[in-house]
Amino acid sequence: MGTEIHNHWVVHPLSDSPISIRALKPAGLQKNLFPVNRTYRAADYGSIQALKMAFESDALSLNDQGYNVYTVMNRIRDDFCGHQAVRDKDIKHRTTILIDIDRIGDTCNPASEPEVSAATTLAYQVAAYLDLKGFPKPSFVHSGNGCHVYYKVEQKGHEVVGDAVELFLKGLAERFNNEMVGIDTSVFNPSRITKVIGTMSRKGVASEDRPYRVARLL
């Protein structure tokens, strides 16, 4: 887990804009954890490497404390400050479209290996379809319970783009969803958070055939 977090930057490269961590209590976990929001700015560190090290160290530390750890996918406005959660109005513009594929039905506990495998298979099917439509090559991430497909974009006007992304995800879901896994159509908003790669995904009760897993680059 300590080295996999370095792959976070493959999917979410650093820029001169603030980056954010949001740490949340896992669903179903009987532990007294309160939400944590932290913002990182290049100007606060002596180098990009120092910023990376601080982000990675905090993400892993919060994960070790029992939190699920997320980051904001899209570019945060330069003047964002404070320790509150990033909202849609705080997004400068969209840089990423997420296709989040997970099992259909009860998601209270971790996914089984057949469910994860089905989500990954569907992810590659969706990507093959979009490749034929002229989309760029995406990044694939094992989210811990399914598969994330990330497409890089550079578009201004996040409100219009948010509507377009919602329609895009709904169209894919209608085409590709099956009885076991499907596309989450709720992840279209500009301030969407997503799992920090290299951190453990926890939900409900883990078991031998439904373990907690680390989010990792595929």
Describe the structure.
With 218 residues, this protein is an alpha+beta fold. The protein has a single domain (4-217), classed as DNA primase, PRIM domain (Alpha-Beta Complex). Helix content is 28%, strand content 26%. The protein is built from four helices and twelve strands; from the N terminus they run αββαβββαββαβββββ. The strands form three sheets. Strands 4, 5, 6, 7, 8 and 12 form a six-stranded antiparallel β-sheet that branches. A four-stranded antiparallel β-sheet has the order 2-1-3-9, with helices on one face. A two-stranded antiparallel ribbon has the order 10-11. Strand 6 (139-142) and strand 7 (147-155) form a beta hairpin. The radius of gyration is 17 Å and the shape is globular. 34% of the residues are buried.
Keywords summarizing the entry:
218 residues, alpha+beta, DNA primase, PRIM domain, six-stranded antiparallel beta sheet, four-stranded antiparallel beta sheet
For the sheet with most strands, the description reads: 6 strands, antiparallel
Strand/helix succession: HEEHEEEHEEHEEEEE
Number of domains: 1
Structural class: alpha+beta
- Number of DSSP strand runs: 12
User: Distance between the terminal alpha carbons, to the nearest Å?
Assistant: 14 Å
In percent, how much strand structure appears in the residues?
25-35%
Shape: globular
Number of helices: 4
* CATH arch. level architecture: Alpha-Beta Complex
The CATH topology: DNA primase, PRIM domain
Mean pLDDT: 93
CATH C-level: Alpha Beta
Give helix % range: 25-40%
Using only CA atoms, what is the Rg? 17 Å
Poorly predicted runs: none
